[in-house]
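To make this tangible, this section ends with a sequence with its structure tokens:
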Amino acid sequence: MLAVYTVAACRRQRDGWIAGGVAGGVLLTVALLFQRISLGGTDVVMVELVLIAAGVGVGTRARHDARARRAREAREQSRQAVLDERLRIARELHDTLAHELALVDAQAGVADYPLDVDPAAARRALRDITQHTSAAIDDLRAALVLLRSDHDETDRPGREDPASRGLPPDGDPTRDRVLSPTVGLDRLAGLLGRFRDGGTPVTLDVVGEREDLGHNADLAAYRIIQEALTNATKHAPGAPVDVTLRWVPGYLGLEIRNAHAPSPGRPGSAGTGHGLIGLRERARVAHGRFDAGPTPDGGYRATAELPTRPRSTTGASDVRGNVRGGAAAAPDTEEPSP
């Protein structure tokens, strides 16, 4: 019985049942050969005990397999959560760094011209450059701390307790900066003001009565406008940008449009396309949609639709008609605006 249990508990379930059947068959055969076709109660009990041992072993093996499967699934879910979080951090890093560095580039261009004729204006531009580079460095440092955080160290034995080093329980003093983003349309005025200070003419038009946006939609709206303005600054420096927020029942329509560069004196930079992918992903996560492309006049436009409540057919068609009738901004594509 012990041998049958061991085989059933340590091998596959089929092997356990085979071992139990073979052992039971051997016992029956021996009993029949030595007792001349008559079976005693003890023989029957022995066969039953062998089969019970096989069943218990198979059950033990099944529970062990189930625990191992749940452990694998938990590890896979944890690993996927870490990958998803790091992808989100990468998107945040792209958005914030691209924004700050685009403003640095614009301010550097501004500082170059009045350096001799207006030293005070040049000094203001240089102070702005220092401010934006400091913000970019802070964002980069926070992201690097997160990417090297203890997410991938949770299985290591003897890992140091972060509290022993005076850190929060998660071990990351800058986690709240990146993992708990508070930006949204409430900060849109400050965002537009920074671009205006950097030399990009930006106009804002709001149509309709504002509705409540969920966290993902609010963040997506802000990041889409930020990325569109950043790309307009990179691809068409100095070109005017029109931002339109169109509120309709159930949806927010975004339109951001930039014309072509007013002069060829300062060429725009080429993009990698990562920003466009990130914007589509942000809109998808918020259960919305994003589109972008060139305009006939040589500029670019980007449009987005973000829900303020569960999707309705009427609301979606109204927004699509309104948004596509308008214009939008320069996405981070491989083809810069002329």
The longest helix spans residues 41-112.
